[in-house]
Amino acid sequence: MNENIFDAIDETIHAKARLGIMSLLTVHQQCDFGFLRNELGLTEGNLGSHIRVLEQAGYIDVAKTFAGKRPRTTCSATQLGRSMFQRYIEGLEKIIRMAQLPPKQE
Amino acid sequence: MNENIFDAIDETIHAKARLGIMSLLTVHQQCDFGFLRNELGLTEGNLGSHIRVLEQAGYIDVAKTFAGKRPRTTCSATQLGRSMFQRYIEGLEKIIRMAQLPPKQE
Fold first, then answer.
1. Nearest residue on chain A to B9, judged by CA atoms?
2. How much is the pLDDT for B3?
3. Chain A contacts of B87, Cβ < 8 Å?
4. Domains, chain A, ranges and CATH?
5. How many contacts does A have with B, using Cβ atoms within 8 A?
6. Distance between CA B87 and CA B14 in Å, rounded?
7. Locate the Winged helix DNA-binding domain: which residues (chains A, B) (predicted)?
8. How many CA atoms lie within 13 A of A3 on its CB side?
9. Closest Cα in chain A to B82
């Protein structure tokens, strides 16, 4: 796309499931895998693949620990992830403002 | 996904290119194919396939006319498209409000 207000829409965040993950990690700071899966209604495989995209972009950290004998996967947003998410949200706000202008008479 | 604020994110509109098309059609009422292609920096094939998705959903009307001898394709949002776009924008606003809450201490 040319340089325009849609450029601020980072495709790494924009996919609906990843927008959900980043939003929840912004509100909750840390979320375990099961919580994200339930909140977003995703399958394990689907959530796992979106988490990998965000991890590879450096937007989230993934920690594997144990709760007793059960493995536990915990995600949190990195500083880069928080700042990219903030920029993404600002981009959405610009689009919303544009979409709410009165229509041009042509 | 479970019933949650992300449900308002209509995937037909959410794809970046289609969000661009719907935003431009909201502002300009009518756009021809070349204008959309330039504004959004898409290839002809790519724009064509996104336009077909929106047309098949009933969100836009596509009219083929002639400007002199040159064929001209003009798009406009339908009433359904406008109302679904409005609902989508309201969904984004909810996500933005959630993302701007102070983080929960856990």
1. A16
2. 56
3. none
4. 5-92 (1.10.10.10)
5. 99
6. 12
7. 18-96
8. 0
9. A99
Query: Which residues have CB under 8 Å from A92's CB, separation 6+?
Result: A9, B92, B95, B96
CA distance A37 to chain B (A): 9
Q: What is the pLDDT of residue B99?
A: 81
Asked if the Cβ–Cβ distance from B103 to A28 is below 8 Å, we say yes
- Predicted local confidence at residue B10, as pLDDT: 94
- pLDDT at position B5 is 77
Residue A5 has pLDDT above 60, yes or no: yes
| A68-95 pLDDT, tens digit each | 888 899 999 999 999 999 999 999 998 8
Tokens 């756009």 locate to B31
Residue of B95, B103, B106 with shortest CB distance to A19:
B95
Average pLDDT estimate for A48-66: 96
Question: Which residue's structure tokens are 């996904």?
Answer: B1
**Contacts with B82 from chain A: Cβ below 8 Å:** none
Residue A95, pLDDT score: 87
How close, in Å, is residue B25 to chain A by CA atoms?
9
pLDDT higher than threshold 90 for residue B15: yes
> What 3 state SS string does A12-54 have?
HHHCHHHHHHHHHHHHHCEEEHHHHHHHHCCCHHHHHHHHHHH
Report the C-alpha gap between B92 and A20 in whole angstroms: 11
